[in-house]
Design goal:
D-Maltodextrin-Binding Protein, domain 2; 5-stranded mixed β-sheet; 42% helix; alpha/beta
Length: 301
């Protein structure tokens, strides 16, 4: 008897994710079904695919051989499913991650678009930093990551979305003049940091330290919404996406501060792995190109 695609999928994802539970979640089925399919596959092939002697499952030497063949088989199967159908009819969860800037602006439209374009597909989003999204993607815990290009692995398939302008902002009550701030003056201002692990924060602090300037960070936060609120309250100066907080700038709650050191724009991309899930992830990434818009839109009442 020939192995079925469902048996191969159960084995492949259990091995890739290191858990029958995780494989069941990805394939939208139960753990008992996953275990049964793998047992049936092992019986058909006459080999043991997993070492179950320890708490965590481990692919056997023979299982490694079967894993490579399974990868090829699933690629061919996915290609066949696309014949005559440019957008795969899939059912179950599609996990993706976005940064806070995306969540605050176009995540809702993107999620709705996925639902309408792929009947039966359930979009499940995670909001996190680009660095953490990159890790989740490499660990196969999400299928697609939308974040900053410099923080997403170069070996991933990356679709360019847009450049986002970032500017220094503060409360008009904190900085009342209109002149350009010298770099030395920035060291005297209370600074709102973006978190020690932020690539942008590290770049800013390094740039100023090379000029003998140490920032006076009064507090640090990974949430740009919280940073905007603190800036509005006059706690300090920080840098934010200009389009995301355009309403606060136009209303005068935030003021764009001109400085000798401008923050370079950041490029956003949609990234995914080049493996058996890529056909779906690539199609979703392509749809993100048209939807990417960092201006905040008010939902009509």
């Amino acid at each position: 008897m020939m192995p079925s695609i469902k048996q191969v999928e159960a084995f492949y994802w259990s091995g890739q994710l290191g858990s029958f539970v995780a494989a069941a979640d990805r394939l939208n089925t139960t753990q008992s079904n996953i275990s049964k399919r793998i047992q049936e596959l092992e019986s058909t092939l006459g080999v043991e695919l997993f070492d179950r002697s320890k708490r965590a499952i481990k692919v056997t030497a023979k299982g490694v051989e079967v894993m490579a063949i399974s990868d090829q088989l699933l690629r061919v199967h996915m290609t066949l499913r696309q014949v005559g159908n440019s957008e795969l009819a899939l059912a179950g969860p599609f996990r993706f991650g976005v940064t806070e800037a995306v969540a605050l602006t176009w995540l809702a439209r993107f999620s709705l678009d996925i639902q309408l374009a792929f009947a039966g597909l359930v979009p499940i989003s995670t909001v996190d930093t680009s660095v953490n999204l990159n890790t989740l993607l490499l660990e196969r815990k999400i299928d697609l990551a939308i974040g900053t290009e410099r923080n997403l692995d170069k070996d991933l398939v990356r679709t360019r979305l847009a450049d986002a302008e970032r500017v220094w902002v503060a409360s008009p009550n904190l900085i009342k003049h209109e002149r350009i701030l010298a770099a030395a003056e920035m060291g005297d201002l209370p600074m709102l940091g973006h978190g020690d692990n932020s690539a942008q924060h590290n770049m800013v602090t390094q740039h100023l330290r090379e000029r003998g300037i140490n920032l006076r960070v009064v507090t640090s936060c990974t949430s740009m919404s919280a940073l905007a609120r603190m800036a509005i309250d006059g706690i300090g100066i920080t840098y934010l996406h200009k389009d995301v907080f355009a309403a606060d700038i136009e209303a005068g709650r935030l003021k764009v501060i001109k400085t000798e050191f401008e923050i370079p724009p950041v490029t956003y991309v949609a990234a995914h792995r080049d493996d058996v899930i890529s056909p779906v992830a690539a199609l979703v990434a392509a749809r993100a190109v048209a939807l990417c818009d960092f201006r905040r839109h008010v939902t009509p009442s």
